[in-house]
UniProtKB/TrEMBL annotation:
The active site is at residue 370. It comes from Nocardiopsis codii. SMART domains: Zn_pept. Keywords: Hydrolase, Metal-binding, Metalloprotease, Protease, Signal, Zinc. This is M14 family metallopeptidase. SUPFAM superfamilies: Zn-dependent exopeptidases. Residues 1-31 form the signal peptide. Residues 101-406 form the Peptidase M14 domain.
Length: 421
């Protein structure tokens, strides 16, 4: 990939080192197999990449002719057996001390309380459930007449399904402040807050994100912190645990030691179940009130839309007009932030994702944002906190464009009469 000048070790050396770490455990916390970062060469198509993802490795970044994957020794062996060249990747930006410029869970709760106290007429906090370790899962509602459930289009923003993706929490903080501080002074923000009910879930994996921050270095932790019966490996990948085409298509792992472990059953992760129940609870009079949504992740600077479990554009549950709406709105937002817009499965197949569930189960037009950086060279999952203000502000216009179309997303392709009455 452009701009990356890694030092590489051979596959045998990497695997031996990782196996040694697996004996010691990860940061001394558990005897589960260690994972490490690898570069894979020879995967040039979505089908190639899906084959690699099916081993249980997490595909962190897709380059022109290489992949970066987070994988266990077993994953590495499986990828190598498929015929791909695999080498351990020594990032030019190695894991460092957790950056105090990033917002911890306690600090996030403080920000939420501060925003609500400063803007009680348009912002309200609710606790929608608890994480596995008992932390509150918080929702922030922003709307005029915030205490009233009005008949207005609703928009959902979900943050930090994956623990190591801390920039997504900063995106939530930025949105809360943008939509409240701008109310009454910015005409566009004021009109949107007056005409929408906006829900921000600023951290849906607080156990994982707190664990990731708690070591002497970042711990590169992705999953939640839920034990798995019969295994020393902890955690479920929340974004493989959703109850639409769960485990259907090789886009997740059935092994608890995998970083993409989908859990023993759909919604087995309490955090997923809480958020899913919240979304289902927004069905009023038989109609889902949430019309549009964004699930924020890092990294690679992409805007993705469903489906992820199939390469098909038009398929069961997705008509041509519905696909065209996602595509047009994704491209419209990408014009604002410079991200690359594409269908999720253009990268590789995933199953059990929130992206597919929000559309396939709830008919919510939705997108995944893979935020800054574009590559590992700029920090991967751990860019310096000095970029937070710039990279969250970069998404302002893109998010406002989604809010613009929340009244009828199909308006972007001229099909409002057919879909919105």
């Amino acid at each position: 990939m452009v701009g990356i000048t890694p030092v590489r070790r051979t596959l045998v050396t990497a695997a031996v080192g990782a196996l040694f770490l697996s004996v010691l455990g990860t940061s001394g916390a558990t005897a589960e197999p260690a994972h490490d970062l690898y570069e894979v060469r020879g995967a040039v198509t979505a089908q190639d990449r899906s084959e690699i993802a099916a081993t249980g490795a997490a595909l962190d970044h897709v380059g022109e002719d290489t992949l970066l994957v987070t994988a266990t020794p077993d994953d590495v062996e499986a990828i190598s057996a498929l015929g791909y060249d695999v080498e351990e990747f020594d990032s030019p930006v190695p894991l460092a001390d957790p950056d105090p410029g990033y917002t911890s869970y306690a600090e996030l709760v403080g920000v939420v309380d501060e925003v609500v106290a400063a803007h009680p007429d348009i912002a309200a906090k609710s606790v929608i459930g608890q994480s596995h370790e008992g932390r509150d899962l918080v929702a922030v509602k922003i709307s005029d007449n915030v205490g009233v459930d009005e008949d207005q289009p609703e928009v959902l923003f979900v943050h930090a399904q994956h623990a190591r993706e801390h920039l997504t929490v900063e995106m939530a903080v930025h949105l809360m402040r943008l939509l409240t501080d701008g109310y009454g002074s910015d005409p566009r923000v004021t009109d949107l807050v007056d005409g929408r009910e906006i829900w921000i879930l600023p951290n849906v994996n607080p156990d994982g994100s707190e664990y990731d921050m708690a070591g002497s270095t970042w711990r590169d932790w992705r999953k939640n912190r839920q034990p798995n019966e019969g295994s020393a490996a902890l955690g479920t990948d929340l974004n493989r645990n959703w109850a639409y085409e769960w485990g259907c298509c090789g886009g997740s792992s059935g092994s608890p030691s995998s970083i993409t472990y989908r859990g023993p059953a759909p919604e087995s992760a309490p955090e997923v179940r809480v958020v899913a129940d919240f979304v289902r609870g927004r069905v009023v009079g038989g109609e889902q009130q949430i019309t549009t949504a964004i699930d924020f992740h890092t990294y690679s600077e992409l805007i993705l839309w469903p489906f992820g479990h199939t390469y098909d554009d038009v398929t069961d549950g997705m008509s041509q007009a519905e696909y065209d709406t996602h595509e047009a709105l994704g491209e419209h937002m990408a014009e604002a932030n410079g991200y690359t817009p594409q269908q999720s499965s253009d990268l590789y197949v995933t199953d059990g994702s929130i992206n597919d569930w929000l559309w396939g189960d709830q008919r919510i037009v939705n997108f995944t944002y893979e935020m800054y950086p574009r590559s590992a060279a700029d920090g991967g999952f751990y860019p310096p906190s000095s970029v937070i203000e710039r990279e969250t502000a970069r998404n302002e216009e893109a998010v406002l464009r989604l809010l613009d179309y929340a009244d009828c997303p199909y308006r972007i392709i001229g099909e409002e009469a057919a879909y919105c009455g």
